[in-house]
Amino acid sequence: MEATLWQRAASFAARAHAGGLRKDGCTPYVAHPFRVAMTVRHVFGCDDDVAIAAALLHDTIEDTATDYDEIHEHFGARVADCVAALTKNKSLPEGEREAAYDAHLARGPWQARLVKLADVYDNTIDRTPRTPQTAEKMGRLRARALRLAAADADRPEVARAIEAVRALG
């Protein structure tokens, strides 16, 4: 029996993020994409294979040596397109980068916007207690993710995600 898409994505993410740590300096980085995938599945109630695999892989292009072609080769175009939509172009100045990211995410698959909500959800929970500056930044990130996901609110899993993210504050 062959491993499922999400199982292969979990293994790939663990290898890609090996040795990386969260900002606290002690939590393995891969805990974040694993929590994002669990949020997609268990908090938002989404069992879409592409969404779960993209959640597991969402930071691989941006934060590791992995590129789009490698994701495409191992997981196909649908997952690679979601991960690409969740990847910021670090070669752009910050102001342009954020606008380009929002535009790319808005044009991407609905699963990418769902994963973005799960990413914001996890980062909000992971950063408690917060400084006033962190709370303000997280509020802006939540508002952006909610605005982008509004177009998909007719999907039950996205509607649940929007409700869960709004409940965070």
Give the helices and strands, then pairings.
Elements: H1 5-16, H2 31-43, H3 49-57, H4 60-63, H5 68-75, H6 77-85, H7 94-107, H8 110-126, H9 132-149, H10 156-167
Helix pairs in contact: 1-3, 2-3, 2-8, 3-6, 3-8, 5-6, 8-9, 8-10
How would you describe this structure to a colleague?
- By secondary structure, this protein is an all-alpha fold.
- It has a single domain (5-167), classed as Orthogonal Bundle (Hypothetical protein af1432), CATH 1.10.3210.10.
- Helix content is 69%, strand content 0%.
- It contains ten helices and no strands.
- The protein has helices spanning 5-16, 31-43, 49-57, 60-63, 68-75, 77-85, 94-107, 110-126, 132-149, 156-167.
- α1 packs parallel to α3, α3 crosses α8 and α8 (110-126) packs parallel to α10.
- The mean pLDDT is 94.
In short:
The chain has 169 residues and is mainly alpha-helical.
Structural class determined from secondary elements: mainly alpha
Ranges with pLDDT <50 over ≥5 residues? none
What's the total number of strands? Answer: 0
Oligomer: single chain
* Domain count: 1
In CATH, the homologous superfamily goes by the name Hypothetical protein af1432
Q: What gross morphology would you assign?
A: globular
| CATH fold type | Hypothetical protein af1432
Tell me, what is the CATH class? Mainly Alpha
Descriptive labels:
169 residues; mainly alpha; Hypothetical protein af1432; 10 helices; 69% helix; globular
